[in-house]
């Protein structure tokens, strides 16, 4: 693209992908760090893991902080579809393969991450009071996973804060997901486990997202752990039956999906650059509705059957009771939510799991669609059909279709990220909480 000044001389528009010296140094450090991490998985030892992790974090931060000098505050939405990394080019596919490969190793071949586990084990012992190795010498990779997950959200959260520093809503939303991941999803559960003989509880996750939270064995484990365990059980039940409906009524599903949830936090930070790759077709919308509600039905049935089997002493399912949980954990929690849900960011957009599989998102979506005051209001007379809103919708909603007609957007899938409003050059879209209306359009 070129623009003209008053003297009619051609002035080339700056390309945001032309890095300065500091950004190049940061990217070099980041690349060397990734290489060190790869070497550590091949038996390179904790030294390579430490150097790799340190350089990866340092390089990313150096590059990210320097982007504040790329121009004035605001969302720069040009050149996106010309970027190989951001528009399903070869760099995007390489990123998808790398991220998918990491999750496969994490879930199914954790022995390759031994060097990284050794590296963070002192932190695990200090924070949670337990080692990554149990009395039988078996290694657990899950503290490492939580650590890397949290560090990623914090580092990429800095990027989001810089990128969206012109928007108070985006700044608060980013700070919120960073805080809830660091405090309620990582630090507090580990500290409480140290203080209460290994009792681990993820306060930021709610059933049915944390699918095993209300399984019989989980409930019994909480009841055996005194007053704190009973409070955790009370919190689990109140979260889904009381807190969720009330907050969704007033704020829509955004209160959780865009402000609290760790899955959403990773999507909004690490996955932010890939949001434009979500499929906006009607076919994708149909698949979305079938898949996400099928997963919700599946976990409700699984939980119900396990309780029936528990109440009747195993006479309902017998040995199949545990297999239901294992099957759900493998196919949905590990493959769908983990490997596909995160690894496919560069190919299918940043909300693959949230859009197509998350049962908590399905619950919140039904409440939002039929019970909530939240909607995105539009002013069709001001819409110029530029398409920025649809392009940047990570949930695959064709926002422009609604904006052109002046129709309010009340979709079950909308997570209220506010990006459509932020990229609109005419101020057509606004996130609002209004009175609930019945089918005749009369406020109730």
UniProtKB/TrEMBL annotation:
GO terms for cellular component: plasma membrane. Residues 374-402, 405-434 form the 4Fe-4S ferredoxin-type domain. GO terms for molecular function: 4 iron, 4 sulfur cluster binding; metal ion binding. InterPro entries: 4Fe4S_Fe-S-bd, 4Fe4S_Fe_S_CS, Electron_Trans/Redox. The chain crosses the membrane at residues 21-41, 47-65, 86-108, 142-162, 174-193, 232-251, 290-312, 324-345. It comes from the Bacteria. Keywords: 4Fe-4S, Electron transport, Iron, Iron-sulfur, Membrane, Metal-binding, Transmembrane, Transmembrane helix, Transport. It holds the Pfam family Fer4_5. This is 4Fe-4S binding protein.
């Amino acid at each position: 693209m070129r623009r003209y000044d008053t003297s009619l001389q051609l002035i080339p528009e700056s390309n945001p992908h032309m890095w300065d010296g500091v950004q190049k140094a940061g990217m070099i450090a980041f690349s060397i760090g990734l290489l060190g991490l790869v070497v550590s998985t091949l038996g390179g030892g904790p030294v390579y893991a430490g150097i790799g992790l340190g350089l990866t974090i340092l390089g990313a931060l150096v590059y990210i902080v320097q982007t504040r000098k790329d121009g004035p505050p605001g969302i720069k939405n040009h050149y996106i579809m010309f970027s190989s990394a951001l528009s399903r080019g070869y760099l995007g596919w390489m990123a998808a393969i790398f991220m998918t490969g990491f999750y496969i190793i994490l879930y199914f071949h954790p022995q390759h991450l031994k060097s990284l586990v050794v590296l963070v084990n002192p932190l695990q012992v200090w924070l949670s009071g337990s080692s990554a190795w149990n009395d039988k010498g078996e290694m657990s990779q899950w503290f490492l996973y939580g650590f890397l997950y949290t560090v990623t959200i914090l580092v990429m959260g800095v990027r989001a804060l810089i990128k969206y520093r012109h928007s108070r809503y985006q700044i608060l939303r980013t700070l919120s997901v960073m805080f809830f991941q660091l405090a309620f999803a990582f630090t507090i559960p580990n500290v409480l486990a140290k203080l209460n003989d290994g009792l681990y509880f993820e306060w930021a996750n709610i059933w049915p997202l944390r699918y095993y939270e209300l399984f019989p064995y989980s409930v019994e484990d909480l009841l055996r752990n005194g007053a704190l365990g009973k409070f955790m059980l009370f919190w689990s039940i109140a979260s889904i039956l009381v807190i969720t409906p009330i907050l969704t009524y007033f704020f829509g599903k955004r209160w959780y999906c865009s402000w609290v949830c760790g899955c959403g936090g990773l999507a909004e930070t690490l996955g932010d650059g890939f949001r434009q790759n979500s499929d906006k077709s009607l076919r994708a919308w149909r698949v979305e509705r079938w898949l996400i509600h099928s997963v919700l039905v599946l976990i409700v049935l699984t939980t119900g059957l396990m309780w029936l089997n528990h109440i009747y002493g195993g006479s309902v399912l017998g040995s199949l009771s545990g297999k239901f949980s294992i099957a759900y954990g493998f196919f949905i929690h590990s493959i769908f939510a983990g490997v596909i849900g995160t690894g496919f960011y560069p190919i299918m957009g940043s909300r693959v799991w949230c859009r197509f599989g998350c049962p908590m998102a399905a619950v919140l979506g039904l409440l939002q669609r039929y019970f909530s005051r939240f909607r995105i209001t539009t002013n069709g007379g001001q819409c110029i059909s530029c398409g920025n809103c649809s392009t940047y919708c990570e949930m695959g909603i064709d926002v422009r279709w609604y904006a052109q007609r002046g129709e309010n957007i009340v979709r079950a899938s909308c997570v209220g990220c506010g990006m459509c409003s932020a990229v609109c050059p005419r101020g057509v879209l606004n996130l609002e909480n209004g009175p609930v209306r019945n089918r005749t359009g009369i406020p109730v």
